[in-house]
Every structure is written in C-alpha cells, then in structure tokens.
C-alpha cells in the first residue's frame, strides 16, 4: 500500500523510526514507482533510512492534473508540499531531471532554513552546464526516438500506441521543463553533493557531471559507474551501498539536523 501525505510525496515502505528520510525525484517522464525497487531494497537491507518518492502531476494517480513544464514552478510547489516530511533529517536523490529539480528544491529549502543534509545528483549535467536542446519541440515520433536512445521507458510502453498517447504529454512537459531551464545566480547549497554518472551515458559527459562541484560550498564527490543514462537499473546494489554510506557520513556531519 502506498502512503500519501500532500499531493507530491509517495511512501511505499513505512519506517516509523528511521533516522533519515531519503526523498527521491524521478527522471523526465518518470513516476514515483520508478523508486519502488530501491525503496524495497533499502527496507530489505534493514538500513536506518526511509525512502519516499515524488509523484509529478500528469501521471499515474495524478494523471488528471495538468503537467507542469517549468522547473522553477515545480520546485516552488514541491518545496511547499514537502514540509510535512521534514520532521527528521532529509536527503534528496534525483535522477536526470530529478537531480536538477532536487538542486532547485535544495536552494529553496536552504533559503527557508530547512536545508537537506545532502543531495545525490544522478545522471545529470550540472546546472551551469546545460546545453541548448529542442527535443521537446519534436513531433511524437521524434520524442519517442529520443526515449528509445536513452532506454528510459519500458519497451512495452514504447510499442503500445494507446499507452504512448497517455504518457507522451507528461514526457513532453518534462522535456520542456528541462530544456527551458536556465540556472540563475543565487544561493548555492552548503550541503554535500554526491554525483553519480554512468561511464557510457550518451547525454551526460563526465566534465558536465563534474561541474556540479561549483554548486555547493560543502563537500563534493563524483562516482562513475558502469552503464548508460539509466545505469541505476543494473547497479542498484552498488548505488544503495554508496547512498547508505553517504547518509551515515552526512548524518554524523549534521548530528543536530532536525526540523520538526
């Protein structure tokens, strides 16, 4: 059963006494259930972490809501809605678009005096390393081709015309949000940033991932893993090991971090 508090956050496995909460943000076109395997793996490992995932509007149980195609608007809405989940130390894990959204959410939470203890930026160029791209302006066939290149959407979905008609508006909205995003000078996070990237990612060069160093005044680390843009699918155990190690480290660094 999935727990819901507010409109944006979903919890698949409740851990009432967890010392840390990890808020996971999906990739463009993704949904909260993308993190169900990770949540289950963390629970099965008995780690002192509760995993929750963000559900963007326009998909699954929020399918009737209009998609948001502006990253700053998404970050503003999420920052307001996530408040009930800040009753214990919180870290953010974002994959691809989710990492960029996680960064902007971190800026907002920092400005509000409730910063996360750390940010995991996965398979994403740094905010200052964005390219000018127009995938969101392609026709449906062009958008589907881009999805196939990344292997980020289930092949059964890509082969089902009816399903595609249902999910393409959300995917196009997400691509619009990513490709029209422009980093603005302002408050940078002081929390640690752990960057993860696949060694054969077709859309994130190593230098673009390493450029995240400029976006925190705190500690920074980069880990390169085998795989492409969705390396996470095949590297779940290794990613979980990195995440849990960093969370222990960050918790020690911020022993008094609590916003409740």
The separation of the N and C termini measures: 25 Å
Secondary-structure element order, as H and E?
Answer: EEEHEHEHEHHHEHEH
Strand order of the largest sheet: 1-2-4-3-5-6-7-8
Name the helicity range: 25-40%
Largest sheet: 8 strands, mixed
* Average of pLDDT: 88
The count of strands amounts to 8
CATH overall fold name: Rossmann fold
Approximate strand percentage: 15-25%
User: What is the fourth-level CATH superfamily?
Assistant: Alpha/Beta hydrolase fold, catalytic domain
Low-confidence runs (pLDDT<50, min 5 residues)? 255-260
**Broad CATH class:** Alpha Beta
CATH architecture: 3-Layer(aba) Sandwich
Q: Supply Rg.
A: 17 Å
Q: Quickly count the domains.
A: 1
* Number of DSSP helical runs: 8
What general outline do the C-alpha atoms trace? Answer: globular
Which class do the helix and strand fractions yield?
alpha/beta
